[in-house]
Amino acid sequence: MQRETVWLVEDEQGIADTLVYMLQQEGFDVELFERGLPVLDKARQQVPDVMILDVGLPDISGFELCRQLLALHPALPVLFLTARSEEVDRLLGLEIGADDYVAKPFSPREVCARVRTLLRRVRKFSTPSPVIRIGHFELNEPAAQISWFDTPLTLTRYEFLLLKTLLKSPGRVWSRQQLMDSVWEDAQDTYDRTVDTHIKTLRAKLRAINPDLSPINTHRGMGYSLRGL
């Protein structure tokens, strides 16, 4: 059975050595990078099963590296490691497509557990199903793709899962907690503005294609729904 691959981008030697050892003990093939730019070069030829990124790299911001990697591989699961745990960093990391966020100091076993959680989530949402049209949307689950007015949307994984959830029940009002339970059910580190942040980025992407329609409704004190299509 082929071992799943993890690329670890971490410039602190002690942390890197510990994580490489623990991940290998968990059965992963691990490749370590001390800089971010070589990762971009290699990612143009191949892709790992999971990417672990340190935010504070010496040659490129971990956030910018994540943005460029997801432009190459939109479905790539990304876990951030950082010494900065302020909400603004968490928001930025999740807005650009990171799947999870671990603040230093952390338990290496926790990192391994979160990697396994990400892989389970990817397998769960990769089950094929028919392409369906819902109003001006087209949902292609096998390709993890949603189009709006026949224009494919460039979405992060959680943006895709969030919009897919709304699409499958047009008109239903989803509370923030219901959306968290449905979309982020396996996430171990979420916060109050997670749903709002992703709704904001979804609206911006929809508006860029058709500025005259806003299909996502806000129900103050209740949650969100997709306008009847």
Describe the overall structure.
By secondary structure, the protein is of the alpha/beta class. It has 2 domains: 5-124, Response regulator (Rossmann fold); 132-226, Arc Repressor Mutant, subunit A (Orthogonal Bundle), CATH 1.10.10.10. It has helices at 13-25, 37-43, 62-72, 87-95, 108-124, 157-167, 176-183, 194-209; strands spanning 5-9, 29-33, 50-54, 78-82, 100-103, 132-134, 137-140, 145-148, 151-152, 216-219, 223-226. A 5-stranded parallel beta sheet has the order 2-1-3-4-5, sandwiched between helices. Helix 1 (13-25) packs across helix 5 and helix 6 (157-167) crosses helix 8 (194-209). The longest helix has 17 residues, at 108-124. InterPro entries: CheY-like_superfamily, OmpR/PhoB-type_DNA-bd, Sig_transdc_resp-reg_C-effctor, Sig_transdc_resp-reg_receiver, WalR-like, WH-like_DNA-bd_sf. Residues 5-119 form the Response regulatory domain. GO terms for molecular function: cis-regulatory region sequence-specific DNA binding; identical protein binding; phosphorelay response regulator activity.
